[in-house]
Amino acid sequence: MQIGFIGGGKMAEAIVAALIRSKLAGPHEISAGDVSAERRRLLKERYGINMYSRNRVVVSNAKVLVLAVKPQAMQEVLSEIAGEMTPEHLVISIAAGKRLAWLESILPKARLVRVMPNMPAMVGHGMSVFCAGRGVTAVDRKTVQELLSSFGRVLELPETRFDLVTAVSGSGPAFLAYVVNGMIEMAVAEGLDRDDAGLLAVQTMQGTARVLLDQGMDARALIQAVASPGGTTEAGLAVLEKSKMTAILRDTLKAAMQRSEALSKG
Ligand SMILES: NC(=O)c1ccc[n+]([C@@H]2O[C@H](COP(=O)([O-])OP(=O)(O)OC[C@H]3O[C@@H](n4cnc5c(N)ncnc54)[C@H](OP(=O)(O)O)[C@@H]3O)[C@@H](O)[C@H]2O)c1
After folding, report:
1. CA-to-CA distance for 255 and 241, rounded, in angstroms?
2. 177 and 75 together in one domain
3. How many angstroms is it from 12 CA to the middle of ligand 1?
4. Neighbours of 58 (CB within 10 A)
5. Which of 133, 152, 166, 201 could be 170's S-S partner, Cβ–Cβ 3.0 to 4.6 Å?
């Protein structure tokens, strides 16, 4: 697969690493453009891929293009590469808040797919949601599925769900890390070594995720399975209930979702 990246930052690097690891593309088939000489040097050194300072070279080298610059740099980048686009180009945008209609208005010739990945893509356990724009074929969908599967799980949903998805899986890692951090801080305050506290909290989160995902266990069933009547878990859960944690989480996700809506409107 000849694949090009516009922007060689954190997310592009995660995808490049996954593509090479999964052998979906070899280093010589991957090119990327970045304004930063340091990023160009680093990615070339780490992965042996072709790095360019001019994005247009990347566009002419690849038929599958991943737009991986920050949303605020997108307008400038699209204006730069629009003239190089052909109907053969499949363009995958991972920029938060940039809608398909907006992308299609600037790149009318390309077939466009919008993706919301998340940060655990960096360790091959990402969650990516995609939606397809006009002209996207069954073969394109398969290409996108394969590419995204190389660094985690994939779901296709309508674009109308993207603000919600941004809140749940896009911002989600930060919300879950917030909970983990709270557990660590409490354990440290009670006298546990910080490394030990980190291991207890993080390994517990990983184990819990594995039970929910691998065993397909419902989250409510897991809560019941751990909480025996009159026990320690039940005592803790009573505090969560009294503090209206479910309502707090709903408000947290709603705030992220509303911010995503506002950013999408520009
Ligand atoms: N990080 C996440 O968890 C996450 C999750 C979901 C979606 N996303 C999306 O993924 C995209 C990339 O995010 P990121 O975290 O990888 O950002 P990042 O690390 O800042 O990477 C962007 C790279 O693009 C470079 N760049 C800026 N302007 C450019 C231009 N005109 N041409 C070529 N390269 C240019 C930047 O260089 P300089 O730094 O020198 O400007 C930087 O190296 C964003 O649109 C974001 O919304 C990120």
Report:
1. 21
2. no
3. 8
4. 26
5. 166
Q: Which ligand 1 atom lies nearest to the CA of residue 76?
A: 31
Strand stretches in the chain, DSSP E? 3-6, 30-33, 50-52, 64-67, 90-93, 111-116, 126-132, 152-156
Distances (CA, A) of 53 to 8, 37, 205, 216: 10, 8, 41, 46
| CATH number, residue 156 | 3.40.50.720
Give me the half-sphere count of Cα atoms (radius 13 Å) on the Cβ side of residue 12.
30
Encode the chain (266 residues) as per-residue pLDDT tens digits: 899 999 999 999 999 999 999 999 999 999 999 999 999 999 999 999 999 999 999 999 999 999 999 999 999 999 999 999 998 999 999 999 999 999 999 999 899 999 999 999 999 999 999 999 989 999 999 999 999 999 999 999 999 999 999 999 999 999 999 999 999 999 999 999 999 999 999 999 999 999 999 999 999 999 999 999 999 999 999 999 999 999 999 999 999 999 999 988 86
115 and 193 inside one domain: no
114 three-class SS: strand
- Ligand 1 atom with the smallest distance to the CA of 117 is 6
Whether residue 255 is found in the same domain as residue 147:
no
Nearest residue (CA) to ligand 1, atom 45 = 95
Q: Which residue lies with its CA nearest to atom 46 of ligand 1?
A: 95
